[in-house]
Amino acid sequence: MKNIIKFLFIVLSSQILFLNGCAQHKFQNDKLTSCSDPINTYIAGVSANGKEIRYTKLGSGKNIILFLASIHGSERAGTPLLNHFQDYLINNCSLLAGKTVIIIPIVNPDGFEKKSRYNSNKVDLNRNFPAYNRVNDKHSGSFALSEPESYILYKIINTYKPSRVIAFHEALACIDYDGPAEELAQRLAAKCKLPVRKLGAKPGSLGSYVGLELNIPIITVELTKEDSKKNEHELWNDYKNMLIEAIN
Ligand SMILES: [Zn+2]
Which residues contact 51 (CB under 8 A, 6 or more apart)? Predict the structure, then answer.
């Protein structure tokens, strides 16, 4: 009973924040002067500890591609990389023709701040999704989507229904995939130094949910240990071509 009440609370509070976020364009960016579409950053909701989870939407095409980073707060290199990618797309908006690119730079702001894999409830958000292989335990959460962060991501995915999802992790140094994404994984690997390696679907992971339950191609980019020490420009140098390929 307690779990059901907690779940309903999370659903209702996330819903309100999500809709508010959509209704008010919080951070209109005037930089996109050469393109017809404005870019907008939304607040999708808040973390277990009350921190905002933001996402940016670029373009308005039918092909929707979702990028996300720092679902594990100790694996942070994807965040500056996606911030740089966002700036690049703003300045090269012809790349957005026919596409909508959604970027969530930090899925787990509480973990990001503390450099912790988990959220502030000590749950691994990447084990908290409603996949067939999920387990209920302390680190995976007592039920699927028990955490506000994973519920927010679930809501974004089910609202926008992306044609593919690219998630950044570290430091297994490979391109992993779930669902119908092998060809995409090979194309991305050809544009960077990471090899394709199938790591296997982890219980209740985003990969299991998106790739195997929803049958949407999902790529898990496992950056290298060295990448975690690189600055934004070094990361961009190494992964620019791969990121551009990801929207092709
Ligand atoms: Zn990870």
Answer: 109, 110, 113
